[in-house]
Write a structure and sequence with these properties.
- The structure is a homodimer.
- In chain A, β2 (about 80) and β3 (about 90) form a beta hairpin.
- The first copy, chain A, is built from six helices and six strands.
- With about 160 residues, chain A is α+β, with helices and mostly antiparallel strands.
- Chain A is about 50% helix and about 20% strand.
- The first copy, chain A, has helices at about 5-20, 25-40, 45-55, 60-75, 120-130, 145-160; strands at about 45, 80, 90, 100-105, 110-115, 135-145.
- The first copy, chain A, has a three-stranded antiparallel sheet. In chain A, strands 5-4-6 form a three-stranded mixed sheet.
- Chains A and B meet through β2, α5 and β6 of A and β2, α5 and β6 of B.
- Chain B binds a DNA duplex (25 and 25 nucleotides) through α2 and α4.
- Chains A, B: Keywords: DNA-binding, Iron, Metal-binding, Repressor, Transcription, Transcription regulation, Zinc.
- Chains A, B: Its cofactor is Zn(2+); Mn(2+); Fe(2+).
Chain lengths: ~160, ~160
DNA sequence: CTGTTTGCAAAGTCTTTGCACAATC
DNA sequence: GATTGTGCAAAGACTTTGCAAACAG
């Protein structure tokens, strides 16, 4: 969950980044960032983001949303992520997840869970030793069944 | 490298899969599969594949290439892979790489190298223990600098 | 005020689909 | 010969761009 004061903090931080780049915090951008903050676990696509931002800012156009996420990606405020559905999704980097994180994609309910633990240190060391490849960044998506869906499956079995 | 006899073997195996599904090995499909076999390390996009197949089969249409990879994906003969550029690429599963493999994407030269080692056993165990998430499949892309590019960089330094 | 930003609509990519003709088994 | 497959062109999904009007700093 995100608290109101945290939201204000992040917004301020982002406004500063924009201003340093000579850009403006327009109502449209503000609404877009707020929506991303409020849904920071959801990995929204452009269309989804557009639909949500419209609740706050009904006049906004889809093109503006695309342009805003473009700007935010350049300023490293959001990450662009592409899952196997080929659709680009956006994912805020809050102060506590500055480094890239991993995704657990549930194949039952479609939920995406982030994990911030650094699980790959060892893997990256191996890749360096065995292939001479110097790792700078990584994308890891694990597909499977989440805890909730497993519990539901178990429940269904018990009910028989 | 792929030898001629290996290519014939794989083609035969694929023809059988097609026939089992009531599908035909047309010249277009044959040319597409051959191109995929010959370039099995390259992770071709539809357009790239189309351009290459055209050398063998100049009459082929782009739509046919799309339909062919669709069929091949359903038969688990190719994997669909999406990198961060958002473009879908296709990647043959030969008999020796039936399980899903990882990718090393060089940010200097754009080359994609596959690694077949199973590096994630430990990671998947941790995810199960810590999050109760049951992993069924995974996608891992490591971005960085490949051995060749590192060597070139080193060379450039030495030349100064 | 001045350069940015916006909304709209038009254009661009990549991919899928409809249909009449052609080819395979 | 019946069914599956093909090429083309048209349509679809997602994203980008051009432009005049609106706005933030």
């Amino acid at each position: 969950m995100i608290t109101l004061s945290l939201l204000t903090d992040e917004l301020g931080r982002i406004e500063t980044s924009l201003h340093q780049a000579g850009l403006k915090l327009t109502p449209q951008r503000k609404a877009t960032v707020k929506t991303l903050l409020k849904n920071h676990t959801r990995h929204l696509s452009a269309e989804e983001l557009f639909a949500l931002v419209k609740e706050d800012e009904p006049e906004i156009g889809l093109a503006t949303v695309y342009r805003t996420v473009e700007v935010l990606a350049e300023l490293k405020i959001v990450n662009r992520v592409t899952f196997e559905d080929g659709m680009t999704r956006y994912d805020l980097r809050t102060s506590d997840n500055g480094h890239f994180h991993h995704h657990l994609l549930c194949q039952k309910c479609g939920k995406v869970q982030e994990i911030h633990e650094d699980l790959l240190t060892d893997v990256e060391k191996q890749v360096w030793q065995r292939f001479g490849f110097k790792v700078l960044d990584h994308r890891l998506t694990l597909m499977g069944i989440c805890q909730d869906c497993l519990a539901k499956e178990q429940q269904a079995k018990d009910d028989l």
